[in-house]
Specification:
Largest sheet of chain A: 9 strands, mixed
CATH architecture of the largest domain in chain A: 3-Layer(aba) Sandwich
Oligomer: homodimer
Protein name (chains A, B): DUF917 domain-containing protein
Organism (chains A, B): Mycetocola miduiensis
Structural class of chain A: alpha+beta
Helix content of chain A: 25-40%
Order of helices and strands of chain A: EHHEEHHEHEHEEHEHEHHEEEEEEEHH
Shape of chain A: globular
Pfam families (chains A, B): S-Me-THD_C (PF20906), S-Me-THD_N (PF06032)
Chain lengths: ~375, ~375
């Protein structure tokens, strides 16, 4: 059933999106500001479940690309948010009928709300990942052969580009260097697909889930209950670590926020390795959960999600492992988003501690 | 009067273009191969003087962008050459009527011949600089307010992009990083202009001049006459140095071939500083001629032009200084292409040894 995003739903939705964003996808507060402003200016946004999207719909994803460290300081204007959609409509020669989220994340779940409001279009209850990943080809539509291009990008100065590339990795490569040159954050739109393609390739109901998680954390806090337990239950995951952040190393390089954080528990130590998102969690040097499954860091008492760029010395945190969409565990998907792709020498560890048998290494592929 | 480029004219034209290319613009032999192949495949190309271009013509420049060091190893296919023109036609919603050269240079005077042949369009007898410069905004049309964008770029793999930027420097910045990511050489097309704009903003008759210079060098060699004297006369320049190349330093960085070469004369030493093109010539440490005037290096006996990537230890060379189009000496133009822009701490020295009084420095602009 369709539902409506009103300004009062934004804080919960953005909070839940930051939970599923696994540290990436940008600051939920910042992203929420833009969405709330757009709703007040242009009216509420209708959210359509995947099953209700017509077969012949023209669906575009809208997202912010860049380092979250920069995004939080460079919130786009509504003009910048809609510019790539208009550029793509001109390039496609067709009017867009639905907006979709490419990923779930503090900014990348709320920017599409702003875009849908400003464009007067419905937003699909779903996204391309069910979580956040750092590179643009890392969406389930890529696995279904859906082209990222034509892909449009725009900056706050008014520069716009449209790419038509031979595959989604080349879209990422060219858009990424343009993004870095344009100031490390741009608005993008692409992955044009029909309604039937969207139903097959997207993760359904993710905006509903974000809202439920985000409202649940606030309600538990209000009721003086444990704000983390409900999130763990909704995600079907497990809380596997609690402790204090004692070290954070972070650098914004080649357009990403890369780094690691050390968290000291009662008698073990957790190391979080991230590139925009948390990708590997090691306890006492042994990987316990890795990409593509979700590693979620929450503030100990409030249950508020902490993004990778928000990690600070002294924070007391609880860490959750949760399953990703099962499609991320195919051999083809693991080659694209498994630990090996990011340079970590470990097989994929699922949230429950099991290890994916299949991960094509460079050696196996050769 | 219109004239026709036939395959037998290509070697002379490419040689002359390499002379005016002041060391940049790519290898004339390589560029000539592609043009000759296109003419044989698609027929001869009509060259139209600027005065005969209709006011309402739709003119596009076509060029190769990148480091000449890479261009010589990665000659584009005809498909790649025409891809950005087709992308721009789609973006502009209009059919192109005339092709123009953005600059004069071994590759960038011959690639547009190939494009015109493959597209079945006339080529304008003129170009955007009257020489070669390393960055795409460095054309006289920029001084006339003509936008580089929409600008299309394409690579040999089939990737294509179209940029719409706020000014021509941003076109350069974004296209350059894309170019580097795509392998340090791409085909570009842009600077859409009307016939009346082309007449105002381009340098006229430059293809005719290239042909005359190139044929003159070959004829003089044939007649055992001095092959350099005729070039000096045609350019209204002067030969200011002769000697032997004793040192060449060259690096391909940030998409350019940058470096310096030392030439030892009878009792003085010449230092050539280049970035794709020769930009500063110093004799015994003192600048004697700089960008925007032309610094041309010819092989001592044959008069063959030597590109910056063709410079080798032991070559005996003669070096010519020649005037650029006078419009390059305005204050606005010098801010864009004068020695200061390239990081050389010297005012512009004209070919005859006089110094441009006006050159806005960073201090003056601040």
């Amino acid at each position: 059933m369709s539902w409506t995003i009103t300004p009062d739903l934004i804080p919960g939705l953005a909070r839940g999106a930051a939970v599923l964003g696994t540290g990436g996808g940008g600051d939920p507060y910042i992203g929420g500001l833009l969405a709330a402003q757009a709703l007040r200016q242009h009216g509420d946004v209708t959210v359509v479940p995947l099953r209700d999207v017509p077969d012949d719909a023209v669906v575009l994803t809208v997202a912010m690309m860049g380092a979250p460290t920069v995004m939080v300081e460079k919130l786009p204007s509504l003009d910048e948010v809609v510019a790539p959609v208009h550029a793509l409509e001109a390039s496609l020669g067709r009017a867009v009928t639905h907006i979709a989220c490419a990923e779930v994340g503090g900014v990348n779940s709320t920017i599409p709300i702003a875009a849908a409001a400003a464009l007067g279009l419905p937003l699909i209850d779903g996204d391309g990942m069910g979580r956040a990943f750092p590179e643009l080809q890392m969406v389930l539509p890529t696995l279904y052969g859906i082209n990222a291009s034509p892909l449009a990008f725009s900056d706050e100065k008014g520069n716009v580009g449209v790419l038509n590339t031979i595959d989604n990795s080349w879209t990422e490569r060219i858009a990424r260097v343009a993004c870095v040159e344009m100031g490390c954050s741009v608005m993008i739109s692409g992955f044009a697909m029909s309604g039937s393609q969207a139903r097959e390739a997207l993760v359904g109901d993710s905006l509903s889930l974000c809202s439920e998680i985000g409202e649940g954390i606030a309600a538990a806090r209000e009721a003086k209950a444990d704000p983390v337990a409900d999130t763990v239950r909704l995600l079907g995951g497990r809380e596997f670590f609690a402790g204090k952040v004692v070290d954070v190393q972070r650098a914004t390089t080649t357009g990403f926020a890369r780094g690691r954080a050390r968290v000291e528990g009662a008698d073990t130590t957790l190391e979080l390795l991230f590139q925009n998102e948390h990708l590997v969690a090691e306890v006492d040097g042994n990987p316990v959960v890795t990409t593509p499954d979700l590693i979620i860091v929450l503030e100990h008492d409030s249950g508020e999600p902490i993004t990778t760029e928000g990690l600070r010395y002294g924070q007391r945190v609880r860490v959750i492992a949760a399953p990703s969409d099962e499609r991320w565990h195919s051999a083809q998907a693991l080659a694209m988003v498994g630990p090996g792709y990011f340079g970590y020498d470990t097989p994929s560890h699922r949230f429950d501690g099991s290890v994916d048998a299949v991960e094509p290494s460079d050696e196996a592929a050769a």
